[in-house]
Amino acid sequence: MYKLNVQQVNPGILRTVPKNSSPDYDHLLLDRQLCFALHAASRAVVREYTPLLSELGLTYPQYVTLMVLWQEPERARSVGELGEAVHMDSGTLTPLLKRLERDGLVTRSRDHTDERRVNVKLTAAGLALRERATSVPRAMAERFGLTIEEMRQLKTQLERLTSTLAAADSSASSSEAAPAN
What we know:
This protein has 181 residues and is an alpha+beta fold. It has helices at 34-54, 60-71, 79-86, 90-102, 124-133, 135-144, 148-177, and strands at 4-10, 13-18, 77-78, 106-110, 118-122.
């Protein structure tokens, strides 16, 4: 049996390290990784959405993009705004928007004041699809097997994790861009 030594890694994060022992590789086991649990859960959630969304003729990324547009259906959004809202870059979003436009759900047009910007707006068909999509969140809630409170707590924790990582990424990016003295 090893004696454990508790070390402060970062503020609020403690880890245990066996004293006088060989390296402990248990922390490298896949089933102990938060990142893998998040990855597996994300894939499972998207897989559950697939049959519901296929009835609407949508993929999951198209669905979340339309959800942003459905929030304010009369308002055009720039590709940049949409990308920020759904956490996709323009290289991923542009082909998706082209397919939505081909399917008659959105229109894309150049901004009148800045030709570099492309604005996206719902069509009548895109807005009508919102009505058909109202059953999707309820159906997914049933599939999750969680109470409403558990879902709220999980969503809050995931949003906090996303914000923390985004802030850390911004901080690292800004320190990399800072000129050396």
